[in-house]
Structure formats: C-alpha cells, structure tokens
Amino acid sequence: MKNTIIIASRESQLALWQSRYVQGLIQKQTGQDCQILTMKTKGDIILDKPLNKVGGKALFMKELEIAIEQGQAHLAVHSLKDVPYELPDGFVLAGFFTRENPYDAFVSNHYQQLDDLPKASVIGTSSLRRKAQILAHRPDLIVKDLRGNVNTRLKKLDQGEYDAVILAAAGLIRLGLDKRIQQVLPKEICLPAVGQGIVVAEVFAQNDPLRQLLNGLNNPNSLACAMAERSFNEALQGGCHAPIAAFAEKDSEGILHLEAMVATSNGQRVLRQSLRGSDPVKLGKALADQMIQKGAKDILQDIV
Length: 304
Description:
Elements: E1 5-10, H1 13-30, E2 34-39, H2 42-45, H3 51-54, H4 62-69, E3 75-79, E4 91-96, E5 104-107, E6 122-124, H5 128-137, E7 142-144, H6 150-158, E8 164-168, H7 169-174, E9 183-184, E10 199-204, H8 208-215, H9 220-236, E11 244-250, E12 256-263, E13 270-277, H10 280-293, H11 296-300
C-alpha cells in the first residue's frame, strides 16, 4: 500500500461527496496519497426508464468495478442502499462508515408534511419501496417515477412537475440541502431501504492490505446494522424490482432490533414484522424466514 490509492467514483455531486469523505478517512489513517477517478455509469445515463426495467441499481456499479478489474482504480465507493446483496465474483465490501440519518425526507415547496397534500397530488420517487409505502398510507395520491441526481430531482420539483418528492434524508444532509426537508418521514410511514445512510467501499477480495485498511475504518454500529439488513434481503432474495425495506437499530444494551417490510408496488398488500437478536446475520435470516412463512414470497410474486 505504498503507491497512490485510486477511488473510482460516479460524477454526481453526492457520489463525489461520498468518495471525498472516504478519501479523507484513508489519508488521515495512512498518510498516503489518495485520488479520485470519476466516470459515468449506465445508471447515470439511462434516465428515461425506471431502474427496475433496465437492470436495477447494479447499473450504478458496473463501470466502477471494471475500472478496478482493469487496474485503473483500487476501490469504489457506494451508497450501501444501491449495492445488491450479490456482488460479482471476486469483489467484497470493506469499510462500513458512520451512518447518516437513515430515513426518507418529504420535500415540497408548498406543503409541510405528507398528510398536508391534497387528494390526487403528484409525488415523485424512483423507489418502488417508497411508492408502496406512500400509497399504503395515502392511496389517494399519484406517484410518478422520478430519476436523476439530487439536484435534478429538486429542479423538477421547483419547475412544478411534482407537488412533492421523496428523497433520502442522508443525501440532502450531506449536500448541505437539509433546509429543503419539510418532514423526515417516520419509519411507521416509510421504513428505510436496506443500508440507507451508510457509505461503503468495494474492493477485490484478494487485495488483503486494502481490505485490512478499510476494515480498520469500520463503524461497528453501521457494520452490525448493515449485516442484519443485508442478510434479511439476501435470505428473502429481494432485488431492486421489489418493494422491500429493512432497518436495524442497536439499543443501549447492544441488542439489534430489525424491522422489515415487503409489499406490492401499489401498497395494497403490506407485510411488516420485527425481531430482536444479537447476531446480525442470524437475525436477518430468522426474520426473513418468519416473513416467508407469513406470505412474503407470495406478495413479492404479486408485484403490480
């Protein structure tokens, strides 16, 4: 690890914030040079179709992984909520950093909270998870797809294309746009996505020195919560095509509380359940098994 460390990053403002954040941690820890290589991914380019119709969130990662494979970069930085539970052969996640606000944010120029929206108001989101939960809470609203980076989505709101939009609170906070947040949606209305608010690094499994360096930067709480949420998603075999949520929190005694949700995309069928435990992986699998027994697979097969 004597040479310059190169981070592969998407070009968006938020992706660059995340990469610079990890860059700073690495440089502080090692004292060695760390640079950022930016590039566009297919997920950044294909904006006229819903993600679940064009290949899912992995579209935000492929070009970054190719850069690592070709030796142009050593690691890639991602929002964990955009990382599928299955990674390409040879890649692992190493470095689970401090979690920012994990909840979803209601953003509007005319209304202070979700329940203030008049009937048939148009709300924008690119997430089936958000769509399902919003419609379960407010079936009288019209949910329309909204793609693009944070600033693009806010611009579309400001141009009047939507009455409100739902974005991750973490992204707005990290970009200094937290004043745009009218309401942080409680988990009772909108349970967060798996890994939401956590930044992670992806590396070659065989790059032991870099893996060890990044693992040394782990935030233990982020790591435990991420493992619980992702093991739930993996056991359920959930992907970007399905409205799935899982959110873990540690109590004062170090016990994890994991809450999860699966739904049809119209919000008409919703299953929510929670479980407590000390082993993150076992907890996630156990909760998935319980929800499967209660019909989670049937709900996910009935996506509309």
